[in-house]
Design a protein that fits this description.
The protein is α+β, with helices and mostly antiparallel strands. It is built from two helices and 21 strands.
Length: 420
């Protein structure tokens, strides 16, 4: 038997192996106990969150019930979203023309009142209160109109409206123009406002930000300066230019001087290709009767353009061509154009005091008033920004003017403007 059975294999376990295995079992036991404690804490946290959620739901339910009760008790009436806002600008101006004494020529306060009745009905009105160099105070309404937002693309306007002949007239707040006085064509041969009705709006083109804007309007049109149809001269928007009987600033009201109103409109295209880089082009016009018997037409055609290249450079301009008939002088043909450019020195990245708050501005004007006076005006100036809405503007204007209504050869203008 000792020969037939193989010897039995045995393995001896050392004390070191046993102690190592014992330590591993103890560590595993400690880990299991830690996980059990964390599980208990998680259960407590979940229960607390459930309690807080229940409290929040209860508070929300109570708030909704209170709001519904308050709404049920409220007296039915107009929308509670009425709001009233006053915006506008104020200017103080000093000027010195060649051959004349210098002085403070303008102190102007021009508030704009904006009232929103609801989502669709708005009212806006602008006023001018001025103190001239002679100490006389004038008060007038620049515009006053009711706007009804028909839909996203059409707004109906009625009242004494700013006319969209070009863009300067409808964007000419004193603290936004960068040059204290208006271009000659806008100041002297184009009407500022008219009494009537208008449809206006914008239509997006694709999803790149392009926009087609439009306006179509009918207004009473220009009036006559007196009750005759001869060649008595009556000033237009500016006292420096006279025209036989034509009064562009008349803002005629009923009963009208002539039987038929004037019609006009503007179409514009706005194209931005990236932030602070955009171009805008527009064409506008108006035509209609003028005078006490309506036997003559006054017409205008205007081209406008503007471009922004970076946040620092801007260029814009207009060309205006007008014509109107008279009894004794035939057809008179005032026309002109202007171009303006500006550059903010912050674009130079010089990090210098004062310099970064300066903007250089230049403009060229040309006007032929159709009555024998031709004027070329060269303007160079600057704008210093105390803040975004408080500006100091100053410029030097050189004029080459020849004719019966010639202007002074040069002028210096300084102005402080504040927009609010």
């Amino acid at each position: 038997m000792g020969v037939a059975l193989p010897p039995r294999a045995t393995a001896a376990v050392t004390d070191e192996d046993f102690n190592a295995l014992k330590n591993q079992v103890q560590q595993l036991n400690s880990t299991v106990q830690g996980l059990q404690q964390e599980h208990q804490q998680d259960q407590q946290t979940i229960q607390q969150l459930r309690d807080q959620l229940g409290q929040t739901q209860t508070l929300a339910t109570n708030a909704v019930q209170k709001a519904e009760a308050a709404q049920a008790q409220a007296t039915p009436g107009p929308s509670a979203r009425h709001n009233f806002t006053m915006a506008g600008d104020a200017e103080v101006q000093f000027s010195k023309a060649a051959g004349q004494h210098g002085g403070f020529a303008l102190a102007d306060f021009a508030p704009i009142f904006l009232y929103r009745a609801n989502d669709n009905i708005l009212f806006e009105a602008g006023f001018d209160t001025s103190l001239d160099s002679g100490g006389n105070t004038t008060f007038s309404m620049s515009f006053g109109q009711l706007d009804y937002v028909w839909n996203d693309y059409v707004t109906v306007v009625a009242g004494d409206m700013l006319l969209p002949l070009g863009t300067y007239n409808i964007r000419s707040a004193g603290w936004l123009t960068k040059i204290p006085d208006a271009p000659l064509v806008d100041d002297q041969i184009l009407p500022g406002s008219g009494v009537g009705a208008q449809l206006r709006g914008g239509i997006p083109i694709g999803d790149t930000g392009q926009m087609l804007t439009y306006s179509v309007y009918g207004v009473n049109g220009p009036g006559a300066g007196d009750s005759t149809t001869g060649d008595a001269f009556q000033s237009t928007n500016s006292p420096s230019v006279g025209s036989p009987n034509l009064d562009l600033g008349g803002n005629l009201t009923s009963p009208n001087e002539h039987p038929d109103p004037s019609g006009g409109g503007r179409v514009g295209w706005f194209y931005p290709w990236k932030p602070h880089y955009d171009v805008e082009l527009g064409i506008s016009g108006q035509s209609g009767e003028w005078g006490y018997v309506g036997n003559h037409l006054w017409s205008a055609a205007v081209l406008d353009a503007a471009v922004h290249i970076s946040p620092y450079f801007e260029a814009k301009g207009e060309y205006a061509n007008t014509w109107y008939g008279t009894d004794a002088s035939g057809t008179i043909h005032p026309h002109g154009w202007w171009v303006q450019a500006s550059y903010k020195l912050a674009g130079l990245n010089l990090e210098l005091p004062v310099v970064n708050d300066l903007e250089l501005v230049g403009r060229y004007d040309r006007l032929n008033d159709g009555l024998g006076t031709k004027t070329d005006r060269y303007t160079a100036g600057l704008v210093y920004y105390f803040t975004d809405t408080l500006w100091f503007e100053s410029d030097y204007e050189y004029l080459s003017s020849h004719g019966p209504n010639a202007m002074p050869p040069n002028e210096v203008i300084a102005q402080i403007s504040y927009g609010f």
